Amino acid sequence: MARSTPKTLPSGRPPDARHGLPIAVTGRPVAAGVGSHPRYLSPRASSADLWSSVESAATTDGLARLGKLHAVVHDRSAERRLVAYIHQARQYYDVIARLDPATKPLPAYYFVLNLTKAYLTLVDPPITAPAKVPHGASDGSTLGQRYRFTQEYAKVSQSGVLRMLAVRTGQGFCWPSGAKIQISRLAAYLVEGADLYSDALGTKPKLVPVAATAVRSSGSGKSRTAWLTVDIARMVLEERGLTARSLLDQAAVFGSKFQLVHDASDVDTCTYESVTPITHARTSDALAPMRQEFDRSLLLRDRTAKGGVDHVVLSGRPELLSQEGVTFILLHHLSNMVRYRPQQVEALRGTSYWWLFTSWVDRACENFLLGIASRMSLDEHLIL
Known about the structure:
Number of strands: 15
Structural class: alpha+beta
Largest sheet: 5 strands, antiparallel
Shape: globular
């Protein structure tokens, strides 16, 4: 029997949600993300297409424009560093796809490291001025006589690029100095490898895919408000043994930012809205707060999936590392394995975690590139 269609407001939203409509600024739709406006790329986009926004920062005019966007002035030394970081990141990125899986993490990590330094230089130039900036993590593994991937641990440092990235993305959280993180546990939170994780380990990742994420607004004059909406398929929740309400308890970060506003049994999706709407006099004034709200809600985004697919993180912890931070520390650790313990990497061939090397590295690097491009340009980069 076909499901009946519930009554909705003229805006198309369910009756118990706020009455709001999509918004635009100077004719450009406002997107949910760390960028304010969608920038769509073809699935057949070349490397040059993917890098175009980032590499614009390596030009005088492009850097001046981005500096104005981020309210930052770059001296000549910062300009030279940023250009060098971008050029090196591009060189490492372009060789990854051609390598054997056992060696991919090494150039992949140096791509991520250099692109991170480029982003840090753009938004906070003095931070990369010291002659040597530590990576921010080290190998904390304790290996037994019989090797298992579950013995792999990363150790977080007091300072370094990892912490610099973490405090400027997501919730601004980083693990305390000396914390040891089990690498196999991080695998459950990788949006680019959610399908690979399920296939290899026979269990669902700690992620719940989102059907749609959007920005909506209502009101006029100085009483305008804007907020985020998230729709999640009821079938997806049922597959995880969740209900629309229990998700708010199982996903602590999401639950602290969103409230359930529609859970009718005769519709296919459940609707959530950000708890505190943003008041603004002009639509453009809401852009920066909305980017921050999305970032702090920790809606992990796979920008390489068609149109971008968001995921809610299933964790009871009230503070979590950002998506970029997780990618950084995981690639750092895998690259250490490649450099110093290649025999353990070879031992993983054909095992339940080999997908990290064969497929995830490539996907993660493309997603990281699009994510940093979004943060730098303030346009949300997505693959159509």
